[in-house]
TrEMBL record:
The keyword Aminoacyl-tRNA synthetase does not apply. This is Enoyl reductase (ER) domain-containing protein. Belongs to the zinc-containing alcohol dehydrogenase family. Pfam families: ADH_N, ADH_zinc_N. GO terms for cellular component: cytoplasm. Its cofactor is Zn(2+). Keywords: Metal-binding, NAD, Oxidoreductase, Zinc. InterPro entries: ADH-like_C (IPR013149), ADH-like_N (IPR013154), ADH_Zn_CS (IPR002328), ER (IPR020843), GroES-like_sf (IPR011032), NAD(P)-bd_dom_sf (IPR036291). Gene3D superfamilies: Medium-chain alcohol dehydrogenases, catalytic domain, NAD(P)-binding Rossmann-like Domain. GO terms for molecular function: alcohol dehydrogenase (NAD+) activity; zinc ion binding. The lineage of its organism: Eukaryota, Fungi, Dikarya, Ascomycota, Pezizomycotina. The keyword Oxidoreductase applies. It comes from Friedmanniomyces simplex.
C-alpha cells in the first residue's frame, strides 16, 4: 500500500440488525483487487434505507424483512470519494480512471452487464448472469468508512467540478426523485403533488418537477418544511393544519394532479395519493414504509379514473449522472446540512422522528485533492 494510505481506518458498523452503531478505529483498509479502485470517502448522505437496514426493518419485494445482510454491516450509499489507488493494470487499460478522480459510492455496487435488465439499461434490477449482483445497502461495506473499494467496470465517475457535498445525496435521494419524475411523464404546466416534500427525497422531487416546467404542490408538516418547499417556488399544503388534504389538492389543481409522487415513508401517506389524482393521473411511489406497506385504494377508483401506478428503485447509472448534472449546473439546489461523521447515531434518531428538512451529509474525511501523489498508483 502507498505510504499515504493507512492500513486501518475508522468505520461506523452495526454488529447485529437492530443493534447500536459502533465506531471502530482499527478496521482494515482493503487493497484494490483486479478491476477495482480504492477511494477515500469525503462525504456521504444518510438515507432512510440505511436506517431501515440497520434496524432490520427493510422490506423486500415480498413484504418480508430483508435478512440477507452482510454483518457486521457498514451502511452509506450516497457517498462521494476521491480515487487514491488503482488495482493492477487499470491505469494502462482504462485511462479515463485516474487517481484524483471523483467517484460516487451508490446503492448499486456490482452488476453483471449481461442479464435481461442490465441489457435494457435497468441494471439496478440486475439478476446476475455469471456474477452475483451486489449493492452497498445489504452486501458490501458502504460509505460510512474512510476508504472503500469500488468496481472499476461499473464506476460512477463524477465531473471534477461538482460540489461533493451536493453530489452525495443526489446519488440516491436525487436519482430516485429524478427517475420518479421521468416515470410521471408530466408536461409543462401540469400539476405534480409531492407528498413528503420537505424530506431528503421530496425536496429533490419538487425541484426536478419544477425544472420540468410542472406546477408543484408540496405536502408535508411544519414551518421548516414549508419554508424549504416554498423557497424552491412550489406551493405548500401542511397536512397537520389542513383537515382535508385531498379536497384542498383537488381545489388547487381544478380536478386533481397529473402526478402524485409519494416520497414519505409512512403507510398513511400512500392512502390518499390516488384521490389527489385527476383522471389518467400517475402515482409514483419511491419511499418504502417499514414492513413493506399497502396502498389503501379501491380497485374501483383505479379502474374508473384510469390511474397508473409506477414504482421505482433508484435509477440507472446514466440517469444518476443526469441527476448530478442538474445539481452541478445549479438548476437543482438540494438543501443539505453538513455534520461530522460521529453524529451518525444522532442523525438516525432525527430521521426516525422525521425532523430533518432536506438531507444530512456527513463529512467522512479530508479531501486529498485532485492531485493526489502519483506514488499512490500500485
Ligand atoms: Zn437510499
Ligand atoms: Zn445484470
Amino acid at each position: 500500500m502507498p505510504p499515504s494510505i493507512p492500513t486501518t481506518q475508522t468505520v461506523a458498523l452495526v454488529r447485529t440488525l437492530g443493534g447500536p452503531v459502533e465506531f471502530v478505529h482499527d478496521y482494515p483498509v482493503q487493497l484494490p483487487g483486479q478491476d477495482e479502485v480504492l477511494a477515500k470517502v469525503l462525504y456521504t448522505g444518510v438515507c432512510q434505507s440505511d436506517l431501515h437496514t440497520r434496524a432490520g426493518t427493510a422490506a423486500g419485494a415480498d413484504g418480508k424483512p430483508i435478512t440477507a445482510i452482510k454483518l457486521p454491516h457498514i451502511g452509506g450509499h450516497e457517498g462521494v470519494g476521491r480515487i487514491v489507488a488503482l488495482g493492477p493494470g487499470i491505469g494502462e487499460r482504462d485511462p479515463s480512471i485516474q487517481i484524483g478522480g471523483l467517484v460516487g459510492i451508490r446503492f448499486s455496487s456490482r452488476v453483471c452487464r449481461r442479464c435481461e435488465y442490465c441489457l435494457k439499461g435497468e441494471e439496478q434490477y440486475c439478476q446476475g448472469v455469471g456474477i452475483k449482483p451486489t449493492n452497498h445497502l445489504h452486501h458490501e461495506d458502504g460509505a460510512f468508512q474512510e476508504y472503500v473499494c469500488l468496481d472499476a467496470g461499473y464506476i460512477t465517475l463524477l465531473p471534477q467540478d461538482v460540489d461533493p457535498v451536493l453530489a452525495a445525496p443526489t446519488l440516491c435521494a436525487g436519482l430516485t426523485a429524478y427517475k420518479a419524475m421521468k416515470n410521471a411523464e408530466v408536461g409543462v404546466g401540469e400539476w405534480v403533488v409531492v407528498v413528503g416534500a420537505g424530506g431528503g427525497l421530496g425536496q429533490y422531487a419538487v425541484q426536478y418537477a419544477l425544472a420540468q416546467g410542472a406546477r408543484v404542490i408540496g405536502v408535508d408538516g411544519g414551518q421548516q418544511k414549508r419554508d424549504l418547499v416554498t423557497s424552491f417556488g412550489a406551493q405548500f399544503v401542511d397536512f397537520r393544519e389542513t383537515p382535508d388534504v385531498v379536497s384542498k389538492v383537488q381545489e388547487m389543481t381544478a380536478c386533481g394532479a397529473h402526478a402524485v409522487i409519494v416520497a414519505a415513508a409512512s403507510s398513511a401517506a400512500f392512502a390518499q395519493a390516488a384521490s389527489m389524482l385527476r383522471i389518467g393521473g400517475t402515482m409514483c411511489l419511491i419511499g418504502i414504509p417499514p414492513g413493506g406497506g399497502h396502498i389503501e385504494t379501491t380497485v374501483a377508483e383505479i379502474v374508473i379514473k384510469g390511474i397508473k401506478i409506477k414504482g421505482n428503485l433508484v435509477g440507472n447509472l446514466g440517469e444518476c449522472l443526469a441527476a448530478v448534472e442538474l445539481v452541478r449546473t445549479g438548476v437543482v439546489k438540494p438543501k443539505v446540512y453538513v455534520r461530522p461523521f460521529k453524529d451518525l447515531p444522532k442523525v438516525y434518531e432525527e430521521l426516525e422522528r422525521g425532523d430533518i428538512a432536506g438531507r444530512v451529509v456527513l463529512k467522512i474525511g479530508e479531501d486529498p485533492g485532485a492531485n493526489v501523489e502519483r506514488a499512490s498508483k500500485l
